[in-house]
Structures are given as structure tokens and as C-alpha cells.
Amino acid sequence: MNTQRLATLRISPLHLQQGLFASLALMITLIAVQQFAHWTQKQQEVVQIHHTYSHAAPFAKASALKATDVGLSLQPVEDAAAAIEQAPRQQSWVF
What we know:
Shape: elongated
Number of helices: 4
Structural class: mainly alpha
Number of strands: 0
Largest sheet: none
Order of helices and strands: HHHH
């Protein structure tokens, strides 16, 4: 029954070949466009990352501390231990 319907449509092998070729060409075109879009998106991400890093200062100014500044900022160990012992203890629950 189906063969009779196909025979009435008069689809020749040439029409079938042309349809398959058109489908193949369409599929290749869609894959190529998708790959191109993916490639351009990656290129934009790389450029965007490059712009983000290019705005940062390339070098940071470094300065050494003076010996007097270092001496004042350090505390003796005894003072730190005494400060910890004097601090009130907080209750904590351990399960």
C-alpha cells in the first residue's frame, strides 16, 4: 500500500539524491556556523580577560619598613600570653 503511494508521488532517484545532498549541505553549514560562533565566543572571553588584567597596575610600589617601625609593632611573647590568659572564657558546646 505504501509503495503505491510513493509511486503516485513520482519521486525519482535523482530527487532522492538531491534531497539527501541538500540535507548534508545544510547539516555541514549548521555545524560550521556553530563552530564559528563557539570560536568567536572564546576569542571574546580571552580579550575580556586580557582587558581585565591590563587595567591593573603592572608593578606595586614596595617599601621597606624602618627598624624603629618593626620594633614598635612587635610584642614580647609574655605580653601576648598574659593577654590571652586574662581574656574571659566563652562557653562552648562540644558534641
